[in-house]
Write a structure and sequence with these properties.
2 domains, globular, 8-stranded mixed barrel, alpha/beta, TIM Barrel, 43% helix, 10 strands
């Protein structure tokens, strides 16, 4: 009986050993597939880390740009643009103020809007800017749904530009329900009328995205471009530009609260070339 029991166990032991060897062989055959899976997952993880890292860095830059210290772009010719939102300005202090250690060289001043609005502080701002030694310019805030020639006439009637003033400026920020083609036609009509009146090529102000989406056709290439593009460490716009309004939260002596700050793409001598000059008869 003992011998019978011993013999009956041997087939079981042999069968068990065979099964373990089969399992071990199956595990070895799947290892290359597991290796490929691990490599793919690692690559995916690295890609995700890269993009998450970029988002975190960009977000940190935006937060710092909005709430931290302004980082001024390269350029030695800097200026501001003002309207009644800056309220009463202390021009004695502003005359000696600076932007990131660089003197303020030019000031753009809101003059008009639509066909009948005049900025309530325009006259005094325009007068004091010249009296305190700044190069000055005046801009019109465009109403896309109002006759552009009537708007141009309104601007020309109110703004008396001297030969030493910077050429007229049009601020375009809204389509007002117009198609892109309709908007472009209206903007060009304003530009042409004003250019004829002053004998100087006007400048176009708008944001990076608005220019890209609506005012990007060849007829606008001849107008100096003043671009608004905030909270970025460099311009994404690839075309030529003349002024860059790089922040809307600057602080300068003589102005309470925040003010838009700008940099000119060139030297001071280049800036002088943008003046109206004497009109040819």
């Amino acid at each position: 009986m003992a011998t019978a029991k011993t013999l009956s166990k041997r087939p079981v032991a042999t069968k068990s050993t065979t099964r373990r060897k089969a399992k071990k062989g199956k595990k070895n055959s799947s290892s290359p597939l597991r290796l490929v899976v691990c490599i793919v997952l690692s690559v995916v993880a690295l890609i995700l880390l890269f993009f998450v890292g970029r988002i975190v860095v960009d977000k940190a830059f935006n937060i710092n740009a909005k709430y931290g210290e302004i980082v001024y772009p390269e350029g030695d010719v800097r200026g501001i643009d003002i309207s009644h939102y800056q309220e009463e300005i202390d021009w004695d202090r502003l005359r000696n103020a600076d932007l990131g250690g660089v003197p303020i060289r030019f000031i753009f001043i809101k003059a008009t809007e639509g066909v009948d609005l005049i900025d309530e502080n325009f006259n005094q701002n325009f007068y004091h800017a010249r009296g305190n030694g700044f190069l000055r310019g005046a801009y019109h805030f465009f109403s896309p749904v109002t006759d552009p020639v009537k708007q141009a006439k309104h601007y020309c009637r109110i703004v008396q530009l001297d030969p030493d003033d910077i050429a007229p400026i049009l601020d375009v920020e809204s389509r007002g329900g117009l198609t892109p083609d309709q908007l472009r036609i209206n903007v060009i009509r304003w530009m042409e009328y004003v250019e004829q009146h002053y004998g100087a090529t006007p400048m176009l102000y708008t944001s990076y995205t608005f220019r890209r989406d609506y005012l990007n056709t060849p007829e606008f290439d001849r107008y100096p471009f003043w671009i608004a593009h905030y909270y970025v460490d460099h311009l994404q716009y690839k075309g030529p530009w003349t002024f860059w309004q790089h922040s809307d939260r600057g602080h300068v002596d003589g102005i309470n609260g925040e003010v838009d700050v700008n940099v000119f793409n060139g030297s001071y001598e280049d800036l002088l070339e943008l003046r109206v000059g004497e009109k040819e008869e």
